[in-house]
Structure formats: structure tokens, C-alpha cells
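ARCHIVE CARD
Drawer: 12
Card no.: 0347
Subject: one protein chain, sequence and derived structure
Cross-reference: see card 0346
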Amino acid sequence: MARTNRGPDDLRLRLACLELRSVARDLVNFRHFSRFLAESCPERHNDPAVLDRQLPEAFIGWLGRRIVERKGPYYGLPVSASGRKSTLSTVSLLLETWRRYDWKPELPADARIHRDDYPRSRGLNANFIDEHLMEQIESQENLALLDPETRVLVLVCRDEGLRISEALTLKTDCLKKTPAGRWALAHYKSKDKSYRVIPASRVVVDAVREQCDRVRGRYGNTCQWLFPKVTGNPDGKYPMPYGTVTHRFDAWLVRIQLIDAGGAPATANWHQFRHTLGTRMANAGVSGRTIREVLGHTSWEMQEHYSRISDDTLRREYEEKYEVRFNLKGQAVRLQPDSDLSGVEWLAEKIGRRLHAVTGGWCGRRGSLRHGHEPRDVAMPEVGLLCVQFELVQGVTV
């Protein structure tokens, strides 16, 4: 399928709205699909007419049996659900593009990969940096061992939540002052090719100013990049490549002997600073909308992916909201946060209750438990009206 003359057209369409790195990942996914076709139907592997529903279904199973072939920490392991989902999404978009522009009239009508064909996620990965590790990373003594450019990058990624690709393309005039006198950081958002301005911490402002002075001292006013390439860049035309800063960062983690709480060697990567900022903001009580704006998410799904709210935060919000309840008699029932039973109440709420909606309120008792006054001829939702744990909606009487 990689030999078809419409593959480049599809990639050009993708380049119009995505960065080159994303399109390169799509190309890798196309190669997986092409390899599958060459194995499944070698004589007609470049004929779209063979792509009936049975072949995409077989491709899904083929992906499930694949292992990681690239040398690295995941070598030899099964391809992750997110990796298989990415490949299926790319192939699905290819088929839909062919159909939309009628590039392949011979494509069967049932040549589709549906959303429910994607592998189910096993839950959100807690990809933030553990606070035990952050204490070591944020140590002033350890930060002093970093070269100046990489140290500024660490502070920017930690406090502003930028992707490393966005931090590396910051310009020397990235600091802006708002009418209210606050400092902001202007950057290019590579994911959707737009410019954004976000609040900048005082630490970041001071670090960026120092870095600007270093750049001007080396290049004068001819270099636009805040982090220019170190070698082979006499006029400051190119920004620092990702490989350079990653090599420096990894070497620094080894030098400071980063270890986890169990004493084992640990590691971290640039993107985890973004997860960590979202987690810290959520645990500090910052609203989801604010986190979404700061991190530049375009969907609530991504905001949920980055923001890991701690159990203590959830419990605090739960107790604030449900501190006072009312039973059927109209009597206030107050939860005692410090009592032994509060932990039981919290655990029950955390596991999840079945709420039976009834007129004017709901029953707070789990559906699996029998109500004290449960008549056999009354529907379950109405039974809640007779339960002492019935909760009234504010302002509604029954």
C-alpha cells in the first residue's frame, strides 16, 4: 500500500494541520499496514479492492500479535494499546480520505475501521514525576550542576508546562508584559500550529532574561532563538535540537544519582514535567478549566489525562460538598471528618454508589442493600422515599 500514488497526497493533507513529527509517525503506521498487506495478500497488496471488512479485522488481530522491534526498554514486549490505537487511527483516516476525495473508487464500501475496533485503554498512566524525585530534581545543589541552557529549560518546562519542542523554539522576545503589569510567556504551540501566551513565574522570568543576555553576548541581536544550536551554528540560525538537550538531561540525572523511594535508580523525561505541573495544580485546588488553559489542551479528555488528583484532594472536596445532609425527617446529618466512620463513608463514596433518582431528591443508599421499609409492590426508586438516607434536593420538599 505504500506504493500507491495517493499516499503522498494524504501526507500532504496531514502536513497542512500537523507538525512534521506527527506526519512522520503516520508514515511509520503506514509501513506497518503495508507490511501486513504484503504478508496477507502478496499478489494484490497494492490493490485497494482487497480491503473489504475482513481484511481490516485481520489487521487488528495482526497488530495485537506484534512485539516492539526497536531497540530500547520496550524491546520484545507486546505493542501497547496506545501504539495499536495510533496505528488503527492512521489507517482509518487513510481509508476515509480515499473515500472522501474519491481517490480510490474501487475501495469497498465496508473498508472501515470503527471506533469500537480500537483497543481499550487500561486506564490513565500516572506519568507525572513522583514528588520524591522532584525534590532531588529541584534541589538547588543539583540544579547548579546543570549547564545554564539546560537549567533554564528545566525551569520553563517545570513551571510553564511547555512541551520540550515548544520550549526549544522560544524566541528571545518571548517575555511579554500585560496591561496589568504581569509577565507572560509567548510561545508557538506546535501541536495545532498557533501562538499562545501564558502567565510566567518570577523564577522563569529571571531565568529567561539571563539566557537572553547569554545569547546576545554570543550572537548580538542577530539570533532569534532563546536556545540556539551550540555547534555548526555561527550565525544563530538554528535552534537547539531535541537530541542535544535530552543527552544533557539524562547525563545530569545519572550524575545526581536520581533514586526512587525504594533506593533504586530512577529516570525522568521532559514531557513528564508537563504532567507534573497539571497534577500539582489539580492538587492545589486549581479548576480544571484553568489547567486546561495553562497547558493548552483542546479537549477535556487531555486535561483529565494530565491532571492526577490526589486522594487527599478528592476527599477534601467530598467533605466540603457533603459535609451536611438531610434525612427523611428533615434533620441535618453532619459528617464528622475526623471521626473513625468518616473513612468508611469516604471509601463507600469513592467506590461509587448507585443513586436512585426520585421526586425531589435521591436515595443515598447502595442499591445492593435492602431498605428498612421495603415493600415488595413498590418500585425500587420510590422505595428511596422511605429510607432514612433519602437526600432532598435543596429547595424541594416532598
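Annotation on reverse: Strands lie at 175-177, 183-189, 194-199, 324-326, 332-334, 356-358, 361-363, 390-392. DSSP finds 16 helices and eight strands in the chain.
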